[in-house]
Amino acid sequence: MEKHYCNCYIVPPNILEKMKNDNIITNEVYQRSSEISLNVISARKKISEQLNGFLPTNPKGTAQRFIYDSKNTAKEHFELVRQEHDAAIADDTANQVFDNCGRVRDFFNQEYNFFSVDNNGKNMVMNIHYEDTFLNALWSTKIDQMIFGDGDGVTLGNFAAALDVIAHELTHGIVEYTSGLIYTGQSGALNEHLADVFGTVVKQHYKNQNAATADWLIGDTIVGANWPGKAVRSMSAPGTAFNGDPQPDHMSHYNNAPDDNFGVHTNSGILNKVFYLVANGIPPKNDGTSKKDAVAGLDTPLAGRLWFESLKNIKSPNCDFRGFYEVVMQTTQTLMHENVITRVDALDFIKLAFGEVGIS
Ligand SMILES: [Zn+2]
Fold first, then answer.
1. DSSP state, 127?
2. Tens digits of per-residue pLDDT, 80-89?
3. Residue 157's pLDDT is what?
4. Same domain, 236 and 304
5. What's the half-sphere exposure (Cβ side, CA atoms, 13 Å) at 274?
6. Does 171 share its domain with 35?
7. How far apart are CA 184 and CA 75, in angstroms?
8. Per its UniProt record, what InterPro entries does this chain match (predicted)?
9. Residue 107 maps to which CATH number?
10. Where are the strands (E) in the chain, listed by range?
11. Is 52 a residue whose pLDDT tops 70?
């Protein structure tokens, strides 16, 4: 299978462009971000031999963490500052990345029996203090590493401390090693959706929250005073995370514009809404002529389990929203046979939840 590379940013570049146009960030900061992909790709060639030289290549890895400090340069894999079994160091950012990466790794291993991004114990390489005033964090499939900027302290920052951001980015790694969903159009939006799902599932798990008590925000701790809203995305109410948030919550508002790889971070809102409804339930309806009772949700742990099994069951890298709906229905049936899902109305409920956003 041909490999399709992507740099999966937590803050979509077209949203940063909007911040530039609104004079929230400077053109220089925006431009710097837009050049990052070239630096990463050219750097890969230089470090490829080095990577093979000291990272274990045995088939069953041990998912060790390696934290590198870019020292505010555009070089990843620059200076190793902490690795597995090392004690905490003076740099809080390094320790936060180390701890959060471990939490995400342990969650997938303990809850879903899936070890590291490749389920083969691949080592986890994280680069911190990347560039100067770099307002983003990303997973690069070109180098299979995460990269964290420091932000500017007023618009965006604190990426290393954000568990949802790290879970989101590492899920891109899992998708890369399972279905390899192509990062454009509906398959790309499905890829983004799955990353947001496990961003919130992991965060809710460690915060001891459930579907009813969680805020369902992605990136609420990375936005600063100058960010025009409360988070980067809202899964319960897509399109409301910030002023100008372009996310739709229904197929009738699907965005076909070409920017952001045909809206991978935009149209993911439609599927995010489905997951929220499956976890939290469907509210009652009364439009004057007909009345429908509320339907209870599966809550986040079981909805997360269903979504993770579905993620593994996606067969095509071009899977679209409707294809994913079929995968979730089949996976629901499997989990019912295994008595993981015990409610008899589960298939009707899943069908109803997808129907709420116009997918049938
Ligand atoms: Zn992403």
1. E
2. 999 999 999 9
3. 94
4. yes
5. 29
6. yes
7. 27
8. Metalloprotease_M4 (IPR052759), Peptidase_M4 (IPR023612), Peptidase_M4/M1_CTD_sf (IPR027268), Peptidase_M4_C_domain (IPR001570), Peptidase_M4_domain (IPR013856)
9. 3.10.170.10
10. 7-9, 65-69, 79-83, 124-128, 137-140, 145-148, 217-218, 233-234, 285-286, 291-292
11. no
Catalytic residue, chosen from 169, 176, 192, 309, is: 169
Rounded CA gap, 153 and 225, in Å? 9
- Structural domain containing residue 101: 7-177
Q: Domain check: are 195 and 325 in the same one?
A: yes
Please give the ipTM for the structure prediction: 1.00
Is the domain of 30 the same as that of 114?
yes
282 in any annotated domain = yes
Last residue of a domain, which of 177, 209, 227?
177
Distance 87 CA to ligand 1 centre (A): 30
CB atoms within 10 A of CB 220: 18
pLDDT in tens, 180-228: 999 999 999 999 999 999 999 999 999 999 999 999 999 999 999 999 9
**Domain-located, residue 203:** yes
**Domain-terminating residue out of 151, 177, 203:** 177
* Number of domains comprising the chain: 2
User: How far is ligand 1, taken at its centre, from the CA of residue 169, in Å?
Assistant: 6
- In this structure, are 137 and 153 located in the same domain? yes
169 labelled catalytic: yes
Among 12-16, 51-55, 115-119, 355-359, which stretch is predicted with the lowest mean pLDDT?
51-55
**DSSP, res 218:** E
Q: Are residues 205 and 318 in the same domain?
A: yes
In the prediction, which pLDDT does 142 show? Answer: 84
Residues 92 and 164 in one domain: yes
Q: How far is Cα 199 from Cα 185, in angstroms, rounded to an integer? A: 21
CB-based burial, 256-267: b 16+ in 10 Å, e otherwise: eeeebbbbbbbb
Instruction: Tokens for 132, please give them.
Output: 């100067």
How many CB atoms within 10 Å of residue 228?
Answer: 15
Cα 188 to ligand 1 centroid, rounded to whole Å: 9
In angstroms, rounded to a whole number, what is the distance separating the alpha carbons of residues 243 and 151? Answer: 20
Q: 140 C-alpha to center of ligand 1: Å?
A: 10
